[in-house]
Design a protein that fits this description.
mainly beta, 3-stranded antiparallel β-sheet, 4-stranded antiparallel β-sheet, 7 strands, 35% strand, single chain
């Protein structure tokens, strides 16, 4: 997934925090400091046209995509693999 920041041609990669928690950050760090906790998906937000959405799962709502910018939610079927 490409980094959504302006003027950045990096890619979001899986990383591990000092405490061992998985997050996704730009491979151009420290030049680009974009990071997010949830897994990114290369899906454009239908509400604000942001270039990525993040995968989220909750007990109440199940699996869905949420825009990190405008918080728009889209219910989807969970992909396997």
């Amino acid at each position: 997934v490409s980094c959504p920041e302006d003027n950045c041609n990096g890619t979001l990669v899986q990383k591990q925090s000092r405490r061992g928690k998985i997050f996704f950050g730009c491979d151009q760090y420290p030049k680009c400091q974009f990071a997010m906790w949830n897994k990114p998906r290369a899906t454009t937000c239908p509400k604000c046209n942001y270039s990525i959405m993040e995968e989220k799962t909750t007990r109440k709502d199940g699996f869905y995509l949420q825009c990190p910018k405008c918080k728009h939610r889209e219910m989807v079927e969970e992909l396997t693999g």
